[in-house]
Design goal:
By secondary structure, the chain is mainly alpha-helical. 47% of the residues lie in helices and 0% in strands. The chain has three helices and no strands. Mean pLDDT is 79; it is low at 93-97.
Length: 97
């Protein structure tokens, strides 16, 4: 793995425990390689389809980026919706339970 962006061992050690394990579906790809590809695209500002193949297929990189973003957004929204309303914090009226 030369050239481009690659996650350091330290960064990977922090990220790896957060990834899903034993999920049904297609065979797992190398998560470290794909996440490095996601970061490469975001840093370079290139199109997903222009991501170098050394990271994985561009469609795989885009799909996993979409899945990770969706999970993050979902958990953030759940946390906001279920948190108590504080007068000093932003809590939109449509989120009040």
């Amino acid at each position: 793995m030369t050239g481009g962006f690659w996650l350091s061992d330290r960064a990977w050690a922090a990220i790896e425990p957060l990834l899903p394990r034993n999920q049904p579906g297609a065979r797992r790809v190398d998560d470290r390689r794909v996440i490095s590809g996601i970061i490469h695209v975001l840093q370079a500002g290139c199109r997903w389809q222009d991501c170098p193949p050394c990271y994985s297929l561009s469609m795989t990189i885009f799909n996993l980026f979409s899945i990770y973003i969706c999970r993050c957004l979902r958990s953030t929204l759940f946390r906001i919706c279920c948190s108590p309303v504080r007068s000093n914090s932003y809590h939109p009226h449509f989120l009040h339970i």
